Every structure is written in C-alpha cells, then in structure tokens.
C-alpha cells in the first residue's frame, strides 16, 4: 500500500500514481492520496483518474483506518 500526498517536491502524487499504472506488477498496489486541496477541481482530477481513495487534510484516525480497510478489502 502507498499513501502519498498529491503535492510533493519534484513529482506529484498523480505522477507517481500514473507511473505505477504503467507497470503491470505495480498497478494493483493499493494507493491512497492525501491532500490539503479540497477544491472541486482537485476532486474532479481524482475522479477522472478513477482514484477512489482521496483523503482531504486534516483527516482523523478513523478516516485513514477506514480508507486502509477499504483498500485492503477488509471492511
């Protein structure tokens, strides 16, 4: 599982995600995005990229645990 911020120095979380999607061995790694961006535009980008696991900061412990469970299909 990868938990990545959207904004990072040198590369965006979206770019990391896209690179993983190009690798048949890595594309099924569960991926969670975290971001301080709560604008509809940013959420729209995630939707277009079919990103299901998108947490807006600040998030609480229950939110991250639920997202991890969802990613690992252990709800």
Automatic annotation (TrEMBL):
<dbReference type="InterPro" id="IPR001789">
    <property type="entry name" value="Sig_transdc_resp-reg_receiver"/>
</dbReference>
<protein>
    <submittedName>
        <fullName>Response regulator</fullName>
    </submittedName>
</protein>
<feature type="domain" description="Response regulatory">
    <location>
        <begin position="1"/>
        <end position="72"/>
    </location>
</feature>
<dbReference type="InterPro" id="IPR011006">
    <property type="entry name" value="CheY-like_superfamily"/>
</dbReference>
<dbReference type="Pfam" id="PF00072">
    <property type="entry name" value="Response_reg"/>
</dbReference>
<dbReference type="InterPro" id="IPR050595">
    <property type="entry name" value="Bact_response_regulator"/>
</dbReference>
<dbReference type="GO" id="GO:0000160">
    <property type="term" value="P:phosphorelay signal transduction system"/>
</dbReference>
<keyword id="KW-0597">Phosphoprotein</keyword>
<feature type="modified residue" description="4-aspartylphosphate">
    <location>
        <position position="5"/>
    </location>
</feature>
């Amino acid at each position: 599982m990868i938990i990545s911020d959207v904004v990072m120095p040198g590369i965006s979380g979206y770019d990391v995600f896209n690179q993983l999607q190009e690798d048949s061995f890595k594309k099924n790694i569960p991926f969670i995005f975290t971001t301080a961006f709560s604008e509809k535009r940013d959420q729209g980008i995630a939707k277009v990229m079919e990103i299901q696991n998108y947490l807006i900061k600040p998030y609480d412990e229950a939110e991250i645990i639920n997202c991890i469970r969802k990613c690992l299909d252990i709800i």
